[in-house]
Design goal:
The complex is a heterodimer of chains A (about 375) and B (about 475). Chain A has 20 helices and no strands. Chain A has about 375 residues and is an all-alpha fold. Among the domains of chain A are: about 120 residues, Serine Threonine Protein Phosphatase 5, Tetratricopeptide repeat (Alpha Horseshoe), CATH 1.25.40; about 60 residues, no CATH class. The longest helix of chain B is centred in the N-terminal third of the chain and has 37 residues. Classes of the chains: A mainly alpha (about 375), B alpha/beta (about 475). At the A-B interface, α2, α7, α10, α18 and α20 of A face α1, α2, α6 and α13 of B. Chain B: It holds the Pfam family Glyco_tranf_2_3.
């Protein structure tokens, strides 16, 4: 000990005699050498971890792949007792978290194999998940304190196509972390059988963005296959988030909720937000609600470019003579070539009358207009 | 003289220390940014795009081609195979003198189509637009134009023809990952603020196995120069750009691969055909446009490797590449000097431009002077060997420690190389980069600066392609054309 003290005091006193620059450099060199060393160890450690996992996966795959594949894609429904017998010798092999993760990956690969056209036997599949404790393992992580673990486990359970219980996600749906909170809300909507639409009351999320639109659209599309969707207009009325309202209005058009059309027309009068206005116009077009045609024509005449573009889309859905006349007139009025192209395409949507209208227009048009008509005709 | 010697030694020392501090700070931010991005999205989002194509925003992939007959067919086939439901491929034949266009016409059954061409951004005249008569290739559009001499000019023609709101700027010698489009568009959708550009990691294709136009096995290059460049690219993307992205200060969306908001590119005037660094020039002008119009914006960088490119196989090609980059960098400061230290341009004026000026533009000059200076000191016997080795190891360790950090970041994202030996190969090359590679890049960059001032005329595309296929492309058609 005294030697150590002696030498350390010697080095410290020696070091302190050097100029500041040298001291600083020596410290920086030591820091970088430590980074070098730590990074090297880390690199080896990560590689070892990946290697060990891949070995574990290989082992699990060798042991269980064909057995599980035959069961989850087989026609015969087996009982829990049958499963206990089949996997009697294998259960002890899938005890560690690493093995459970490996088996999860194998199952996901089976489920999402690109060229598979096999039908999943859900009863057997659930029994496989239960017997190896896969669901319990991931559900435990859903309620862990680590946000990354929660996010990963939620995604895995979703990928495994298993319902998540509302209570296990509950902790995450009001999280501060945006990604986790939104993921939890989307997952909750997908699997909650009591009140799946509850987050639509809160405009899904206060930071509602385009990716959330996709999440909600996915949920609504899946839900619409199971049951009739509720009237989405109610969330347009209750929300103050313009982006969310514009999105829900688009969805009204997409899911063809004709009953909401008169209410959408009413909204046209008071709505100030341009994005929402555009959505209303496009939704009315999608719903083919021709009663709103006159109103849309008057809006078109005084509207901004985005409003005009939405109205053009709506007119091409209406396919009425009145709409066609408006489009024809606008074609010659506008000086915007992009708009001309859009109008020409919209006119072409009118079928035979559109085609003859384009023919008529091409007789009194410039070379550029002729190119537009040729382009549109070529696409027919 | 002794006063000057002391001053210069101190200046160099603090310059190196500033680089060290900046790089390690960037590395820390890059690491957390990588972790944040790594788990953000999974294949679920990609599956939603495929299941509900109406949710996938349209993306145009624009790739200019000038005398690319060796690789053009493989390249287009790869692009057509991208796994995304809503995209188009726009190949701009920039007046190729070889059989690039004819190969395209014959292989993809193209014919001239009527097209109301609108020149929203300037470029040399477009002769015709070609589309395929075969519905299998309906996503392909070929723009045949008069040669404009630069990639920027060809890109502008592609932007004029592109029909979607976002476009990818890439080269035909690049191989994209099949999931590129979904990976690059997801962060755009997941942002509250308008995203005007997104970059991703690029690596060398030289050592990789390629099957049906896609990378089937990722390996580091077998040739010497591309191996050095692999680590250099990873450092640039995973440390520098990922770090800068944390501050919304990405200086440059790479010209090899990047996603752009078309409306902003058009509003900013398109790519500058006179620029030798059209990618950085475009990025800066887009930022300037957003700031001039008080529009909030974001430029993102994602850590995933989405693009592989053919690296310079020898010194001759490396010299061409680096000389062009050098010219481009110098040009940036002549054209955009008004942004420098300009309060109006926020981070661009106070972070991006000063950093680029002091640590990128001036670095080769300072390094060269430093080398000559050291030689002079050795000759005059003014070197203090007690501290010389310490200083030398300090400078050497900056590069090596950043390189090893980069390699650990890379394996953290995803282990792309199959063997650990391949990572060790990168490490080995990084440890000798300072002696066998870096001096060449410094020399070529300085030559670029010199060429910029001597105002020689320059053309783009002088990259000798080796091609990705192991077999010759569509042999019968080549013979017919020949």
């Amino acid at each position: 000990m005294s030697y150590l003290q002696y030498y350390s005091s010697y080095f410290i006193s020696e070091f302190s005699t050097y100029p500041f620059i040298i001291q600083l450099t020596a410290l920086l060199v030591l820091t970088m050498l430590s980074i070098l060393l730590i990074s090297m160890v880390r690199l080896i450690f990560i590689n070892r971890k990946i290697f060990k996992f891949s070995k574990a996966k290989q082992k699990v795959s060798k042991l269980l792949y064909s057995k599980i594949e035959n069961l989850i894609f087989g026609d015969e429904n087996l009982t829990a007792e049958n499963f206990n017998l089949i996997f009697a010798g294998d259960l002890n092999e899938i005890k560690t978290p690493q093995r459970k993760k490996a088996l999860t990956e194998i199952l996901l690969e089976m489920l999402y194999a690109k060229k598979t056209n096999k039908v999943l036997n859900t009863d057997n599949y659930l029994l496989v998940l239960n017997i190896f404790g896969i669901i319990a393992f991931w559900e435990k992580l859903v309620v862990s304190n680590n946000a990354t673990n929660r996010k990963t486990s939620m995604r895995i359970l979703d990928d495994l196509q298993i319902g998540l219980s509302g209570s296990s996600i509950q902790r995450s749906v009001y999280q501060k972390n945006d990604d986790l909170r939104k993921l939890a809300r989307a997952t909750s909507m997908e699997y909650d059988s009591n009140d799946p639409f509850k987050f639509l009351e809160d405009s899904f999320d206060s930071n509602f963005n385009s990716l959330d639109e996709i999440r909600v659209h996915y949920f609504l599309s899946n839900k619409s296959k199971e049951e009739k969707l509720p009237q989405l207009i109610r969330w347009v009325k209750s929300s103050t988030n313009a982006k969310f309202r514009a999105f829900i209005i688009k969805e009204i058009g997409y899911f063809n909720q004709m009953e909401s059309a008169p209410l959408l027309v009413e909204l046209l009068d008071d709505e100030k937000n341009q994005k929402v206005l555009c959505s209303i116009i496009e939704a009315l077009g999608k719903l083919n609600y021709t009663q709103a045609e006159e109103k849309l024509i008057s809006l078109y005449e005084v509207g901004s470019k985005p409003i005009q573009r939405s109205a053009i889309k709506a007119f091409s859905e209406f396919k009425t003579i009145n709409s066609l006349n408006v489009l024809e007139k606008s074609y010659f009025k506008t000086h915007d070539n992009d708009m001309k192209l859009l109008l020409a395409y919209a006119i072409s949507e009118f079928g035979i009358s559109g085609k003859s209208s384009l023919k008529k227009l091409s007789k009194t048009s410039t070379d550029f207009d002729k190119k537009i008509f040729d382009q549109v005709n070529y696409q027919f | 003289m002794s006063y000057f010697v002391t001053f210069y030694q101190y200046a160099i020392y603090f310059y190196a220390t500033a680089i060290t501090i900046i790089y390690f700070t960037l590395a820390i931010f890059a690491y957390f940014n990588i972790l944040k991005n790594k788990l953000k999205y999974t294949e679920k989002e990609e599956r939603i795009f495929l299941k509900y194509p109406e949710t996938a925003p349209g993306i145009s992939v624009v790739a200019p081609a000038f005398n690319e007959e060796v690789i053009i067919i493989d390249s287009v086939n790869t692009l057509l195979g991208l796994n995304y439901p809503n995209f188009e491929i726009v190949i701009v034949n920039d007046g190729s003198k070889d059989s690039t266009l004819q190969l395209l016409i014959d292989n993809f059954q193209l014919e001239e189509v009527p097209f109301a061409y609108m020149e929203k951004v300037p470029c040399k005249p477009v002769k015709r637009i070609l589309k395929s008569t075969n519905s299998e290739f309906s996503k392909l559009t070929v723009v045949d134009k008069i040669n404009g001499g630069t990639k920027a000019d060809a890109m502008n023609a592609g932007v004029n023809v592109a029909k979607f709101d976002y476009f990818i700027n890439t080269d035909v010698d690049c191989i994209l990952s099949p999931d590129t489009l979904s990976k690059i568009i997801l962060p755009v959708l997941d942002s509250d603020i308008q995203v005007i550009g997104v970059g991703a990691t690029m690596r060398m294709a030289n050592g990789c196995d390629i099957d049906h136009g896609f990378i089937s096995r990722v390996s580091p290059p077998k040739q010497i120069i591309p191996t050095f460049q692999e680590t250099e690219y990873l450092r640039s993307y995973l440390v520098a750009k990922m770090g800068w992205a944390s501050f919304n200060a990405v200086p440059n969306i790479s010209g090899g691969f990047g996603l752009f908001d078309k409306s902003v590119v058009i509003a900013a005037g398109g790519f500058d055909s006179l620029s030798h660094a059209e990618d950085m020039d475009m990025t800066l002008r887009m930022i300037a446009y957003m700031r001039d119009n008080d529009k909030p914006y974001r430029i993102l960088q994602i850590p995933h490797t989405l693009c592989w490119t053919e690296g310079p196989p020898n010194l001759k090609v490396l010299s061409r590449q680096r000389t062009r980059w050098g010219r481009g960098l110098m040009q940036i400061f002549f054209v955009h000097h008004k942004f420098l230290f300009n309060k109006k341009y926020g981070r661009m004026g106070w972070v991006i431009m000063p950093y680029t000026l002091f640590f990128e533009l001036l670095a080769p000059i300072i390094e060269t002077i430093g080398t000559f200076f050291t030689i002079y000191l050795l000759w005059s016997g003014e070197i203090n060997f007690n501290t010389f080795w310490l200083m030398l190891s300090y400078v050497y360790l900056i590069g090596v420690s950043i390189s090893i950090l980069t390699i650990t970041f890379d394996i953290t994202i995803k282990k792309l190389y199959r063997n650990f030996r391949e990572y060790l190969r990168l490490l080995l090359f990084s440890s000798v980069e300072a002696f066998f590679y870096h001096p060449f890049t410094v020399f070529f960059t300085l030559r670029g600066y010199f060429q910029f001032f001597t105002r020689k005329e320059f053309k783009w595309g002088a990259m000798t392609r080796q091609g990705f296929s192991k077999k010759p492309q569509s042999g019968i058609i080549v013979e017919k054309v020949a």
